[in-house]
Amino acid sequence: MSDIVSANWNYPTPIWFGASRINDISLAIKELKMNNPLIVTDPQFLENVHLKKILLNLDNLKLNYSVFSNIKGNPTGKNITDGVETYIKNNSDGVIAIGGGSSLDAGKTIAFMSNQKKNIWFFEDIGDNWTKAILDKMPKVIAIPTTAGTGSETGRASLIVDEETHTKKIIFHPTMLPDLVILDPELTLTLPAHLTAATGMDALAHCLEAYCANGFHPMADGIAIEGIKNIKDYLITAFKEPDNIEARSKMLVSSSMGSTAFQKGLGAIHSLSHPINGVNDVHHGLSNAIFMPYVISYNRFAIEKRIILLSSYLELEDQTFEGFLSWILELRKELSIPHTLKELNKEFDFDMLSQMALMDPSTSGNPIKLNLDDMKKLYKNSYEGTI
């Protein structure tokens, strides 16, 4: 597997990386002193061989545990409420979240909300509400991603859908950062090609928007640039050669790097995506991939110098803004990503979606200030294919 072996890191949280590190789950449980964890995963993962292996390890430890899997692809407030009820009913003392972004987001939020008196929406990432959380005896969380895209395992927030408004809201608190992460690339080997593509483009969107976002955060910039380089070098390989453990390893690490980097901020790729994820139930990574070139082009005036520097580090053949945009378009084509929203064959209410996108917290990080007309134009461009 080239020079990739295994390693333990402590940034931004303890991370155990390497092939077969899932076998260390018992050590992780002991380290965090869990005696009765709640396993949070999605329904599709229940029969997965890796989950069965984890549960066998727990059985061998003679450990009490329960499983909660009532989670949608875009987890809802009710999913979290149901999970908290399960956690309390079973006297759980920690959470092991395993799966894609939906499972990790749900697991982190269930652990956080199990300790709170206020409604989940009180902790939307607005103002200083996060400072009013109850922090006594906060449950520990082990996060084990099985996809390489969302990076939720190194994030301090979760995306949860408010069913009443169909709005995807960011629930935030610093303690939502998992206490321990296991990054085992072997868990991603069975990821279907279309999800490898969508989640990989999600990781790219995180790194790219963090790099271009407003604000001063050189550490985030450095992480983002290296994440983009990994994705350029390995995403196509992971897509075409699903058993290539080196490519899977690089993509899994890049996913964690993306969510670490976007502490700096995101932008319009995400604020356009969140409404159609909540309203139209479009996969988040897929929507990010579709919107990416249109937003890059729209932001050109503010980001061109940074993009040229990035193109040089990526060693693109054409190290110009146009060359970078061409690379993005060709990458999407090789990954069979639709070029337009129209190809999704869904009905979109762009007036409503534009209002939601403008109010999305990600909008504030965009390199140029956006108004309602900008949002409508970006949706229209993405639907018609106008770059």
Structure write-up:
- The strands form two sheets. This protein has a seven-stranded mixed beta sheet with strand order 1-2-9-6-5-3-4, sandwiched between helices.
- It is built from 13 helices and nine strands.
- The chain starts with 5 loop residues before the first strand and ends with a helix.
- It is of the alpha/beta class.
- The protein folds into two domains: 6-187, Rossmann fold, CATH 3.40.50.1970; 191-384, Dehydroquinate synthase-like - alpha domain (Dehydroquinate synthase-like, alpha domain, Up-down Bundle), CATH 1.20.1090.10.
- The chain has helices spanning 25-31, 49-60, 77-89, 101-113, 193-212, 218-240, 245-261, 268-280, 284-298, 300-313, 321-334, 350-359, 372-384; strands at residues 6-9, 15-18, 38-40, 66-68, 94-99, 140-145, 157-162, 167-172, 180-183.
